[in-house]
Amino acid sequence: MEHKRKIGGERLRNRDDVLNEDRISELPDDLLLRILSSLPTETVIATSVLSKRWRSLWKMVPKLKFNSEDHKSDHQRFSEIVYRSSLSHKAPVLESLHLVVRDKTEALDVGIWIGIAFAHHLRELVVDLHNQEEAYAIFPSVLFSCDDNTLDSLELKTSILLEFPSRVCLKSLRKLHLDYVVFNDQESVCNLFSACPSLEDLFVERKSNIDVEIFTIAVPSVQRLTIVDEFPGNGDEGYVINAPSLKYLNIKGLEWVESCLIENAPELVEAKIIDVTYVNNENILVSLAGVKRLSLHSLPFEVKYPTGIVFYQLVFLELLTPKERNILSLMLDSCPKLQILKLINPTDCFATRRACPVGWEWSQPKCVPECLLYHLETFVWTKYAWQRDDEKEVAAYILKNARRLKKGTISTLAIESNKLERLEKRYEMLNVLANEVRGSVSCHVLFEADSYSYKSGYYVPHKFSFTLGTTEKE
């Protein structure tokens, strides 16, 4: 009995030793630094009290993150922490510095903190200066005047005024993200973009006409460009894009913007145009004639459709627009090599009922488009309005004339399962469409008609699909 007690006690001590064992400290420095890099810098500094080994380890962490919101009642202490931490840093290369500053008095010190970081060969800089007073802080342009800066990625957010009276140097910069910053003038825009000969990824989110009326993006090296401008303009402003290396373009907004001129983008492969509704010039579509993939999510679609335009390279087309508009008919006629067609109905019921402009109603092409006869292989219609005759007319036309179609998927919005009459009517309407004449004998068309119910306060979806006149539940 005594022997068993000794064995039991020894096992208990061994278990406690395992639980109390500091296994994290046994990890190699490289792994520990990687772990610490994901934490706020103040938390990293706090590890210095753990043991002798941890005392200076935090100084080698290659990423620094500071947020003044953690010091709402003591702004002076926040400034001291950032300043001392930056000076104490020992890593040969500072991979990133993230600064979130919410007090306009602290914003005055941002230039000093960034200057110290540049001395450590900073690669990524993120600065967010949003404050409740909405007062703009002038970003110290002198920081970008040095030829030896190693900045690879720059992200500037809100309440920042950019003033570049002369050219600066950002020769290593590959990624630039400008989020609601304000330029002092057009010259500042030009001087910044011309200072980035290696820039590949540019993201610009702004408020129309808040700083410069014609926002010119002339960057020969940029390959990926995103413009977001969802604030209504007054009709005088616009965008000019000159990007000979551009491959991917994403534009969202531009409400009541006078123009969006794409002067030079011969390498453009993929474009996504969202909510660009009232641009008055045709250039925005003409400049996209060479793309291979195009998504048009504009409602209502008021952009002028150019006469005689042909999308010779287009193989993928996605449209978000009420199907009674003739944009679909025009696009089918203009895309001779189209292989994939995706139609998406808007979830906004009001938008689908909005009166369409004269001349944009769906009209069947006089001749079957070349893409339907020889190339279209995939047809997808999401949120298909099964109760509308004009929707059925469009779907039936595509299914009847797409001779090379291999796969089709038509899905509707879910209906509550207790509305039996509506569910039966939907099935009846979809089954009629399923039995329409097909242009392709090998085509498999899947109809997805989901429903849902509420049980104990939870949303319970029910998958339901069928092909032709048969049904198959999942």
Automatic annotation (TrEMBL):
Residues 21-69 form the F-box domain. Gene3D superfamilies: 1.20.1280.50, Ribonuclease Inhibitor (3.80.10.10). Pfam families: F-box, FBD, LRR_At5g56370. Keywords: Coiled coil. The keyword Coiled coil applies. The keyword Signal does not apply. CDD domains: F-box_AtFBL13-like (cd22160). Residues 413-440 form a coiled coil. Signal peptide: none annotated. It comes from the Eukaryota. InterPro entries: F-box-like_dom_sf (IPR036047), F-box_AtFBL13-like (IPR053781), F-box_dom (IPR001810), FBD (IPR006566), FBL13/AtMIF1-like (IPR050232), LRR_dom_sf (IPR032675), LRR_FXL15/At3g58940/PEG3-like (IPR055411). This is F-box domain-containing protein. It comes from Eutrema salsugineum (Saltwater cress).
